[in-house]
Amino acid sequence: MTFIWLGDAPDLDPALVGGKARSINRMRALGMPVPPAFVLSTAFCAEVSANNGRLTDRIMQHMSDGIDRLQAETGRRLGCDTAPLFVSVRSGGAQSMPGMMDTVLNLGMNTDVERRVAEYSGSPDFAADTHRRFVEQFSRVVGTEATGVPWDDLILAAEAVFASWNSPRARSYRAHHDISHEGGTAVTVQAMVFGNYDENSGTGVLFSRNPLTGDPAPYGEWLPGGQGEDVVSGRFDALHLEELEKLLPEVHAQLMAASEALERHGRDAQDIEFTVENGRLWLLQTRAAKRSPQAAVRIAVTLAQEGIITRQEAVALATDAQIAAATAPHVDPVARRDATLVASGLPACPGVASGRVVSDCEAAEKLSDEGIPVILARPTTDPDDVAGMVVSEAIITEIGGATSHAAVVSRELGTPCIVGCGQGVLDSLIGKTVTVDGTNGEIFEGILPLADVHGKEHDAVVQLRDWATETPVAVAR
Fold it and tell me: Which of 61, 152, 212, 253 is disulfide-compatible with 333, CB 3.0–4.6 A?
């Protein structure tokens, strides 16, 4: 096993290279604008772990070979202060684990390189911002200060990314989502592009279809001057993609064309990360888009109607759980996007209800008698609380799990319930009006409107059920 150059093959095994590298490879193989990259496979992860977390000489040689090809491809050199190469060092398991493992951007920067970048870009601010981002992220991910020697920093960053596979948060995520701890992460090294370069630069995320509603129109955000995780972190106020269309219409048109092509190639709605550097579009990643249950059923139907997948594939694309959730009362997805989340926990009984939060059963009974909808919030419940539970629109608890008293009784009552919100979390909600979404385990401030359960999602479910009874047929490609 050696390093794998991305774009040389039509497809790669995600178990070998990780989902991120696989998507880069696919896009480059399709001739799309993607920065060049290579990957050290997941097979190396166990080797590094067995070597006390250090890269072996063999792996370092593969890294050196990969850097040599990256330098030849870009005409730049790592650590060179005349034509410096900058790279990102990214993790990537076979299955997506958003935010669980580590990434280092802008590697290749040091004081001398910053000075040179300020000269050739004409922007000391850009050079300083890029250096600052690198220093802060390197310190956070690697746990030590950058050495100032790019090759040494690269080795340390790769070791940190391999190690992130076994970080407590990654192991907890895999356990919760029933993902195997075997396999490991790959390390992808890719030439950097800079969304913070100038006024015609930025970063963004594009969904080929609306992941909240399932509407076929593309949906996404654009952050001028942004880089890396700036958009998805939520720390910055991103703009609608219409703003990119106004600023750089040709880039926007190119992005829309790429979105359509990637959706047809992937045979599913896509979540695409992109960067614009000095007016030039670069695609960084694409993957099947996460979506609400309501969007899931609509997307499955429209993909089949447009000939991207077969009807039988559409039936398989929407799960039974998504179909059930899509046809149950649920918060309007657009209202959910703008709502304030005040607490969350484990969903114990599905459904949605709004009301005033009370902390004891006597208050629940009194207000209910007055015609005021109530939400019963308790540290936990026991049989003495049933009288208050019966009159409540929803039940929320600070502790407890799926088999707790509150969960079992609420399911028997058919009352929306969320458990395990955290000790002390609910105290600040007493007396306030909230909306409890027992399907997703979320509590929102105020009264949120419900979506029409006989709307487009219902029609899509009916269509899927009709198709499920059909003999499999092919549709035009």
Answer: 212
Spatial distance between the Cα atoms of 162 and 47, rounded to a whole number of angstroms: 10
Q: What is the pLDDT of residues 12-52, one digit of tens each?
A: 999 999 999 999 999 999 999 999 999 999 999 999 999 99
Q: What is the DSSP string of 179-193?
A: --S-S--EEEEEE--
pLDDT over threshold 90, residue 386: no
| SS3 (DSSP) at 30 | coil
User: By C-alpha distance, which of 61, 67, 25, 20 is closest to 187?
Assistant: 20
Helix residue ranges per DSSP H, 30-180:
43-50, 57-74, 111-121, 124-142, 150-163, 168-176
Measured distance CA(420)–CA(422) in Å, rounded: 5
Helix or strand run (H / E) with residue 303? helix 293-305
442-477: string of b/e by CB count within 10 Å (b at 16+)?
A: bbbeeebeebeeeebbbebbebbeebeeeeeeeeee
Q: Is the pTM of this model over 0.90?
A: no
**Which whole number is the average pLDDT over 437-461?**
88
Question: Which amino acid makes up residue 426?
Answer: L
- CA-closest candidate to residue 419, choices 344, 356, 351, 355: 344
Tell me the domains of the chain and their CATH numbers. Answer: 1-192 (3.30.1490.20), 193-291 (3.30.470.20), 294-328+455-468 (no CATH), 333-445 (3.50.30.10)
